[in-house]
Amino acid sequence: MRRAVSLLLLISAVSASAQDLFTTPKLRTWPGTENDKLRARKQRLQVLSAFSVREYERVADKTAPGYEEGRKALEAYAKYYVHPFLGFDAERAAMRELFAQAKQAGCRDPLFLYFYEDESDPALSNRAEKSKRYQASIDGMIAKKYHAIPRLFARRDMYKDQKGQPLASAKTLAKLQDDMWMDFEEAAKDHSMPAEIALLKFFETFHKYESPKNTTGDVRKAVYDRAMKALENAKASEWLQEAIKGEYHTDAAWDARGIAVARLTSDEQFEQFQERLEIARKSLAKADKLEPHRDGPARRMIAVVMGLGEPVLIRNLWFERAMVCNPDDIRSCTQYATSLQKKWGAPDGHYTSFIQACSQNENWESEIPTVPLRMIVTSGLDFKTLSANLNEFNPWWSACVLGLNGLQRAHPDDPNITAYLYCLNVLGGDTQKAQELKAKLPPKRKFSFFGLPVDTFEENFKAYHESVRKAREEKDDK
C-alpha cells in the first residue's frame, strides 16, 4: 500500500514538472476578484456583528447607563476584527478607547463586559481573577437570555488561556466542558449562516486545546464525539456536520502519522493517516459543495490532498477555491506554500515562486504579503539557525522586506509593521536602517516579533551570531 502511494507521489511530481501543471499566481491572475473580497468581508462582518453588537441591541437594556457607548464599542469591535492584525493599529486603539469610555459611562451589561475584559486586559496574569470575571459574564448572559454563541466562546476562553494553561481546577474544567457542550448543542439549533460559521470556528480552535502530540488522537476524538452528539441532538445542518467531520479527520490523520519523516513512519501509522484523510476529503468536498462561499473546508482540503500525494494541479485547484471563498485568507496561502515544498512532491522552484508572488501581492487589507516571513517562522528557524545560514536566508529576507515595505506604504502609521521591519533589518545586517526604524517606534510600548520581544531583539541576535562564529572558529582550529 505504502509503496504504491509512494510510486504515485513520484509519478505525480514528474508529471507535474513535465506538463507544467502549475502557474504561479501573479497579481493579475491571483484567485479571488474584488467582488469576492467584498462578499467575504461582508460575511465576516455579519458573523462578528451577529453575536456582539446585534445581540447587544436585541437584549441589552436601552435605558441603562452607558448603553449607547457600549453599542458603539461593540460595533467598533466587529468592524476591527474583519481585518488582520498588521495595518490596523489605529483602529484597534480607537476601539479600545471606546470600550474604556463605555465602562466609564457605567455600561455593565454582561455581554459588553465579556468583550471589555478580553480587549482591556487580554494578558491578565491572575488566572483566578480572569476565571472569576468570565464566569460573572456568563452568569449574566444566561440571566438575560443572550444567544448561546457568546456564552460558548466565553467558556472556551475561561477553559484555557492563550498559552494552553488551564484557568481552573480539573473538577471545574469538567463541569465547564459539560456546560460548554450544552451551549454548543443549543447554538447548533440556530441554522443561520453566522451561527454555523461561529460553531465551526469554535470547534476548530477548541479541539486543538485538547490535541495530543505524537499519538493516534484519542483525546481529540473525545472532543469530536461530544461535538457530533450535540450536533445530532440539535438536528444541525448537513453543512456544519460535514465541515466539522472534515476538520477533525484532517487533524486526526496528522496525529496518526506523527511528525517523523516518512521513512520513520510505520505501515500502520501510514495506513491510518491515509484512511482518515480519505474521510476528511469526502466530508470537506461535500461541505464545500453545499455552501461554496463559506470559508474553511476548501482551505483544509489543501492539506488533505497534499497528504494524499495528489498532483500539484489538484492542490492548485483547491487553493483557488479557498481564495475565492476568502481572498484575504493568509492561512490558505501558508498551507498552499507548505504543499509546494519538495518533500511533498512539488517540482523545484514552485515554492520559491509562490512566496515571491505573495510578497508582491497588493491586497494591503490582508497579511498575504507577509507569507514569506510566516513560512520562515513556521519552519521553526531560530536565531542560531539564521545566524549560521545568513547567505541562504538572503532571498527569503528580500521577499519578507518587499512584502512588509508594501504594507508600510499602505499603512504608514502602523508601528507593528515598523517593528517587524526593524527586526528584519537586524537579521539582514543593515544596522543603520534598523536603528532608523527603531527610532520611529513609540516609546514605552512593547512590541513582539512572532513572540520575541522587540526591545531586546538586536542584543539577542548579536549574542547568538557571536556564539555561532566562535563555534565555527573552534571547529576550524581543531
Describe it for me?
By secondary structure, the protein is mostly helical. Helices cover about 70% and strands about 0% of the residues. It has 23 helices and two strands. It has helices at about 1-20, 35-50, 55-60, 65-80, 90-105, 110-120, 125-145, 150-160, 170-190, 195-210, 220-235, 240-255, 265-290, 295-305, 310-325, 330-340, 350-360, 370-380, 385-390, 390-410, 415-430, 430-440, 455-475, and strands at about 450, 450-455. It has a two-stranded antiparallel ribbon. Helix 6 (about 110-120) packs antiparallel against helix 7 (about 125-145), helix 14 runs parallel beside helix 16 (about 330-340) and helix 21 (about 415-430) packs antiparallel against helix 22 (about 430-440). Mean pLDDT is about 85; it is low at about 1-30.
Summarize the SSE layout with pairings:
Elements: H1 2-19, H2 34-50, H3 53-59, H4 67-80, H5 89-104, H6 110-120, H7 127-143, H8 148-159, H9 170-188, H10 193-209, H11 218-233, H12 238-257, H13 267-290, H14 297-307, H15 312-325, H16 330-339, H17 350-359, H18 371-378, H19 383-388, H20 390-410, H21 415-428, H22 431-439, E1 448-449, E2 452-453, H23 457-477
Antiparallel strand pairs: 1-2
Helix pairs in contact: 2-4, 2-10, 3-4, 4-5, 5-6, 6-7, 7-8, 8-9, 8-10, 9-11, 10-11, 10-12, 11-12, 12-13, 12-14, 13-14, 14-15, 14-16, 15-16, 16-17, 17-20, 18-20, 20-21, 21-22
Number of strands: 2
Query: How much strand content do the residues show?
Result: under 5%
Largest sheet: 2 strands, antiparallel
Termini separation comes to 48 Å
Mean pLDDT: 85
- Give the CA-based shape: globular
Helix content range: 55-70%
Count of helix runs: 23
* Helical/strand content category: mainly alpha
Largest beta sheet: strand ordering: 1-2
H/E element string?
HHHHHHHHHHHHHHHHHHHHHHEEH
Unreliable spans: 1-28
From the alpha-carbon coordinates, what is the Rg to the nearest angstrom?
24 Å
